[in-house]
């Protein structure tokens, strides 16, 4: 498994990074990190779009699903069957989002590992393909301002801020607490706790990790987060327009009868 991971993901990404360093003017590793991150993110965009589409569709049908769960709250088997039937009727695949995430995880980890274990400014020639040349120089000073081979508090802060914004977009705030007999439900409290951790603790954690490793990882993480934020906003707008168009067509069809 490790060999497969190394040969199919890590080594190609490492060669991609070295190739970019070699062709970019000034051999700026920071620019190479930006370009490689964007290339990988663009390649995964169709998968990400499917994941967001599934999430938005699930959110759209959330009231109907809550009604089903309430209706069959005393019969879990009937509830599960009713939910599955609802998914089938509305052509929803609840596992699509999970599958997309599982596909992306090894790619993201490989990209992260390239920057974490790349050993730059030294280049491991044993990993290079025959058609990839070793750069004559490796410039670790991003735009001549930040040494991304060292720890960078500035980039770590950017990682935390962009991660916080991304989490706010991807994980919306929960509604007011539900109470039963004057006490919050355990399910509601667990969901609220997880929501708070993802929205507030996660950004602090990744910022700390980015700072303890190197500026290259911080730059990669910041670029990745900014891309994810732009992607989320774009896809939200796109699917909102599509839903509005569908609803408008339904209304026109109804009025024409």
Automatic annotation (TrEMBL):
GO terms classed as biological process: protein insertion into membrane; protein transport
Organism name: Candidatus Taylorbacteria bacterium RIFCSPHIGHO2_02_FULL_43_32b
Protein family membership: Belongs to the OXA1/ALB3/YidC family.
Protein name, entry field: Membrane insertase YidC/Oxa/ALB C-terminal domain-containing protein
Subcellular compartments: Cell membrane; Membrane
InterPro entries: YidC/ALB3/OXA1/COX18 (IPR001708), YidC/Oxa/ALB_C (IPR028055), YidC_ALB_C (IPR047196)
The keyword Repressor appears for this protein: no
Alphabetic keyword roster: Cell membrane, Chaperone, Membrane, Protein transport, Transmembrane, Transmembrane helix, Transport
Transmembrane segment boundaries: 17-40, 95-115, 200-221
One Gene Ontology cellular component: plasma membrane
Domain spans labelled Membrane insertase YidC/Oxa/ALB C-terminal: 30-237
Topological type in the membrane: Multi-pass membrane protein
CDD domains: 5TM_YidC_Alb3 (cd20070)
GO molecular function: membrane insertase activity
